[in-house]
Amino acid sequence: MQVFRKLVCGVCVSLNKHTGGVRTLSTSSHRAQSVMQAWVIDQYGDNSVLRFTTNAAFPVLHYPNEVIIKVQAAGLNPLDVNMRGGYGAATMAMKRDPLNINKSSSEFPLVLGRDVSGVIMECGLDVGYFKPGDEVWAAIPPWKQGSLAEFVVLSANEVAHKPKSLGHTDAVSLPYVAATTWSALVNTGGLNKDNCSKKRILILGGSGGVGTFAIQLLKAWGAHVTVTCSQNAERLVRSLGADDVVDYSSGPVERKLCDVDKFDLVLDNVGGETEKWALTLLKPWSGAKYVTLVTPFLRNTDQLGLCDGMMQTAVTIATKAVKHLSNGVHYRWGFFSPSGSVLDDVSEIVDTGKIRPVVEETFPFSQVPQAMQKVEQGHARGKTVVTIAEDRPE
Ligand SMILES: NC(=O)c1ccc[n+]([C@@H]2O[C@H](COP(=O)([O-])OP(=O)(O)OC[C@H]3O[C@@H](n4cnc5c(N)ncnc54)[C@H](OP(=O)(O)O)[C@@H]3O)[C@@H](O)[C@H]2O)c1
Ligand SMILES: *[C@@H]1O[C@H](CO)[C@@H](O)[C@H](O)[C@H]1NC(C)=O
Ligand SMILES: *[C@@H]1O[C@H](CO)[C@@H](O)[C@H](O)[C@H]1NC(C)=O
């Protein structure tokens, strides 16, 4: 094991030299302290708070089950734009420091970026599933430092081997939306690969990150998939396998959808007004579920503090659950949940060719603000990704 650790250290040093941007600082401690390049924010606000630095703290292993990943590519999500503006700040602070012991500690400088594809650089002593050099991907929980940096530290159970058939820039478009969709459809919606055939699923908002993944996963599992999107996205969602496509930009979808057969599950990526009519599209008294990803959870906890926020949230969900159970359908909130084992399954499906990445635009590391702006504009057709290091063998 000692030999192994020394070997790891050797790898680490050569990588540092290789990237050129990472300097090793000499310290009195035996552990080398270094810095790295990253885009950080020092306060919440608009895009102007994004700051490039060559001086960001190099991640360190705090637990024996952690790994350090050299980031090759990062993916952005609407959550990054929200977090830049302070969304979820109270909840995330609580999650980072649950007992609120260290009142002086600050979340800044904060690194955004929730998707990572890269190479394992160092493993904690308890990590057996990965070794340095493995090509991996992960969805980064919002309370951890993100992937708009040269390196990121994650717990090994959040990480998986990336699909062999994809390069890093394509691969990185999938982890966060895949983990979210899986959590919403499987954990919350009760679907799996064996009980989807003949099920009728409606996806509200099919052209964005979550939608383009959800269509492909459900088709791979044999479901019948109906999608709403604007007209210029119809070709895209059909190419991903959508059976029926309803254009929401040319008049109310609810009118077009009320004539079709009822659904077993609705996945809502749009929120707002949709809840007023979409619940009536479900088969009543058959266990049908309405799963929405657009939840007020973080907003409530930010505005009201964690305790009150949770109360408020619990009240909201209880009211809705009771109300819609009485109509014979279940109303549920779906949430992102980090899981390496889910990503292992997704990796396998991707390598069979049944799911392909949908990358809308790729930006170089120097253009993170432009990438963030792209996500902020909305109207996504798949994902916005950032290349951090060139795809090249180390
Ligand atoms: N709860 C969670 O843990 C969680 C996790 C991930 C995502 N989310 C949320 O889920 C939503 C989707 O995420 P995403 O990553 O897929 O976002 P995204 O990539 O920005 O995609 C959103 C898509 O919805 C389309 N759209 C907007 N209004 C629509 C409407 N009325 N009907 C049909 N389509 C519409 C947009 O295109 P057009 O504007 O051109 O129509 C866009 O393609 C976001 O609100 C996100 O915050 C929640
Ligand atoms: C508290 O925060 C400071 C500044 O971030 C840090 O140096 C210190 O190690 C933290 N202490 C604990 C107990 O986490
Ligand atoms: C799918 O199968 C799982 C596990 O067997 C079950 O718990 C779930 O209720 C099923 N869902 C549907 C919609 O049939």
Automatic annotation (TrEMBL):
Single Gene Ontology BP annotation:
ubiquinone biosynthetic process
Name the catalysed reactions. a 3-demethylubiquinone + NADPH + 2 H(+) = a 3-demethylubiquinol + NADP(+); a 3-demethylubiquinone + NADH + 2 H(+) = a 3-demethylubiquinol + NAD(+); 3-demethylubiquinone-10 + NADPH + 2 H(+) = 3-demethylubiquinol-10 + NADP(+); 3-demethylubiquinone-10 + NADH + 2 H(+) = 3-demethylubiquinol-10 + NAD(+)
Taxonomic superkingdom:
Eukaryota
Residues annotated as domain Enoyl reductase (ER): 45-386
Where does this one sit in the cell?
Mitochondrion matrix; Mitochondrion outer membrane
Any idea which UniProt keywords this protein has?
A: Membrane, Mitochondrion, Mitochondrion outer membrane, NADP, Neurogenesis, Nucleotide-binding, Oxidoreductase, Transit peptide, Ubiquinone biosynthesis
Assigned GO CC terms: mitochondrial matrix; mitochondrial outer membrane
Q: Where are the transmembrane segments?
A: none
Pathways involved: Cofactor biosynthesis; ubiquinone biosynthesis
Matching SUPFAM superfamilies, A to Z?
GroES-like, NAD(P)-binding Rossmann-fold domains
Gene Ontology terms, MF aspect: nucleotide binding; oxidoreductase activity
Protein family according to the UniProt entry: Belongs to the zinc-containing alcohol dehydrogenase family. Quinone oxidoreductase subfamily.
* Stated name of the protein: NAD(P)H oxidoreductase RTN4IP1, mitochondrial
